[in-house]
Every structure is written in C-alpha cells, then in structure tokens.
C-alpha cells in the first residue's frame, strides 16, 4: 500500500521522540489560572480521543466539520483530530454573526458543527435546519460537550488513510466582493507548503514559536501551527494577542509570526528592545501589506529585519523574502521570491506576460494551489487559466532580481477617466507626507470620470494634517489623474481580524460622494 498521505501523520512524525516534553505552554495574561502545559503525549492522546469520537459518529467520507469557537489549545487539538479522522475541517471566523453562519452552514452542509457554549441555542437551530446531525460545544476554558463526549473514547487511534488529493480543509474567503467562496485544500496542498516553509525558513531544533494569531485563518491555523508541529517545536500559546505578554515571552522564544497590525502594536510598547529580542531568530509578517515605516522602525528597535511573505486562503504561502542572507536581502515593501516549487507570473489583461518591472495580474501554480471552490465549478473554471494557473486577483510586479511586489487587489484598482490608478502608489505617497500615519485609497462612482480617487488618511498622534493641503501636495508629486479628489482624515481605518483594510466598507461609505 502507498504511504498514508494524511497530513496529521506527517505532523505526528515531527513530534519529538520524548513525548513527555512540553509541546504547548499557555501564556494569556488575563487567564487567572496558572499557565497550562501540554506535552506532546497530551497532543497525541487528546487528538486520538477526539478522532475516536468523530469515528464513532460513522459519518460518510468527505463529511465537513464546521467550527466556530474561541481560540484554545483544545480547538487546535480538534483541528488535528479532524485531520486524523480523515474528515474535512471548516474553520469559521469568530466574528461571524447569525446570517453569515447561516450562509456557511447552508452552503457547506457540515455533518458536525462545534460552537461556543454561549452560542449553542442559535447555532444549533441553524445547523439542525441545514441537516447537520451533531452539534457540540467547546469553550476556551475546556468547557462544553465536545471534550466531555471525547473523554470516554480510547486514546489510541490509527490515522485514517487519505490520498494527497483528498480534502483536508475548506477555508471560506473573506468575501469582500460578492459571496464568500469555500477554497478546498487537500492534504497534499497543505503538507507540501508546510514542508517547503520548514526548509525555507530554516526551522531547527530548539525553535520555540510564539503563537498569537487566530486559528480560523491560513496564517495561524496552517503556517504557524504546521510549522511548529512539523518541526517538533514548542509553542508559547496566546488565545488573544496581547503585546506586553508577547514581549515578556520573547526571551523564551525564537520565532514570531504576525500580521502588520501586531507589529504596530508591539512597536507601541517601550518594552520592545534589542535586549528583549536577543534570543529571537525570526520575525515573519504577512496577510496584509507591511508598511515600510513599520519595517524600518522594527529593525531599529529590535535589531531584527522582518521577513515578509505573501499567500492566500486558496494557495497557502506563495512567496517569501529570503531567510538566508546568501539568497538575498529581505527587502521591505516586497514579498520576496516565489517559494521553491511555486510558479508566479505577471500578465496583462489579455494574458500576455508582462516584462519585468511592469505591473499586471498575478497568476500562480504549484502543489500548494487549491482544488477549486466548494460547489462552484463555474467560478473555479473562471479563476484558472487554460494552462492551469490560478488567477490570484492580486496585481503586482516582479523586478529584474526576481522580487515580487504586491500593488493591491485587482478589484481595488481604480479606473478614472480611462486611466489605471494603483491605490498602493498614492497610499505610499500620502504615507510619506508630514502628519500622515497611514492611508487607504479607493475609487468611488463619478459622473464624468467613471470613478474618482478618494483618500482616507489616518493622522499621526499629535498632528492634524489638512485635507486640502494633502491634495495640494499630491498635485505637486503625481500626475493629475492620480490625485485624490477628496481626502478624509479619520481616527482609524476599518480592518478585519487579519489586519486587512476593508476597502469595501470605505467604498460603501463614500459611494454617493459625487453622484448623490
Ligand atoms: P486571505 O485569503 O484572507 O489570506 O487573503 C489573501 C490576500 O491577502 C492576498 O490575495 C493578498 O491580497 C493579501 N496579502 C497577503 N499577504 C500579503 C502581503 N504580504 N502583502 C500584501 N498583501 C498580502
């Protein structure tokens, strides 16, 4: 028989020989109990009991298991148990409300739903109406029916045999345009990516990861967790990111992964110093663009150069700045090189390759690229080219040395008076101006130009830049068609849990500016 391609088996093979060592240590400052220690044996036994519970339900092959719970070590164990049992894991953002959960459950038709005890009433009503047969609860304090039910099961379990193309997880995209789509990822997609990153980022014995990201998204669930598990590395686990706790734990750690906003919050702490970061080997950023200012400031304060990488739900990780200096420097503002085995190309709207340095649509290929959108064959067909490359929807460029730069999502591209306007260029110009901390540039309907450029700007603490003065400065620096017609100075930009600016909300708020 072929070797079992179950992702869990590969992760399990990464556990150290001494299973009594600590695998996960909790570090939440707001938890009144002392820090909890889970050994590798605990992970093995806990996931076996949960997998045996799932096996006892006798579910059809390919059944989905949807989970909307607060982050906890047990929630991670349950993810691993779903893999181990050979079922399909479907994580849901904890921020989703009734209508959204109704859509996901109706669309995915999970056999099992796990939710927070406090949401059992309404979640179970939605789930049972959609044909779900089992609803369990799991709190972030080990409460709920899931662990109670698992407790009576054996702590020995042989991982289900799965092929590399069998589904491991469905991640719903954030759906900022139209309905959210379920990206189907196979055991092979996820394992190949985890193995590539293990080598590329130089995971080594003795590494300790601070895990402070949510686990309903590709970054925290796959990149961070798989990295540590495959390497048999201890995790210092925070259910919620808390900058002071992270800084207090840095001296016990070597690797940290964050979205850009986490780095901004770390930088706001005086405790972030070179001394605090002395044991650290690697700081990684992704999921949203890292401002060059954050990149530079972090280097000054910590002595470390953040490694920025790029990926998405449909593909896991695609590109990374080099870890190894011999492969090149880590260049702020870029997302580095295509990972080994990953193809990245930039094409124009007709599909012809763009010369290096030119901006165009980014397409990718590789063993990490997903199997298609759940129950949306037409949408899947639209998003792949005839030669099998996935259209990421990102716009970017590759320079002569091979560094990839993301300019934005193609749907964020503004066409004003027939000219293409790339929001990232105007945002970069604005962010350079005195008194500006950050900005988001959007297009809104305009009777003459089709779309007009509008900028939403966040002031630096203590300054209050004048909107008209910013427009005048843009005029002095950029071609007229790129200049924002209106600038709004605000306290904050709307962001989702992964730190991405929600431009759809800004567009909605300002859509009537010129047409009302
Ligand atoms: P998601 O599927 O939620 O992970 O979102 C994926 C999208 O996030 C990508 O298609 C990019 O638009 C964006 N993204 C991820 N990493 C980066 C990065 N390092 N720089 C800029 N955009 C990024």
Number of strands: 24
Characterize the overall form.
globular
The level of helicity is: 25-40%
The hetero compounds bound to this protein are: adenosine monophosphate
> The CATH topology of the largest domain, please?
Rossmann fold
**CATH architecture assignment name of the largest domain:** 3-Layer(aba) Sandwich
Give the uncertain stretches in residue-range form.
Answer: none
Strand-pairing-aware structural class? alpha/beta
The major sheet is characterized as:
9 strands, mixed
Query: How are the strands of the largest sheet arranged?
Result: 2-1-10-9-11-12-13-14-15
CATH H-tier superfamily of the largest domain: ANL, N-terminal domain
- The whole-number mean of residue pLDDT values reads 95
Gap from first CA to last CA: 67 Å
Fraction of residues in β-strands: 15-25%
Could you give a quick summary of the protein structure above?
The chain has 516 residues and is an alpha/beta fold. The protein folds into three domains: 7-240, ANL, N-terminal domain (Rossmann fold, 3-Layer(aba) Sandwich), CATH 3.40.50.12780; 334-410, Luciferase, Domain 3 (Luciferase, domain 3); 413-510, ANL, C-terminal domain (GMP Synthetase, Chain A, domain 3, 2-Layer Sandwich), CATH 3.30.300.
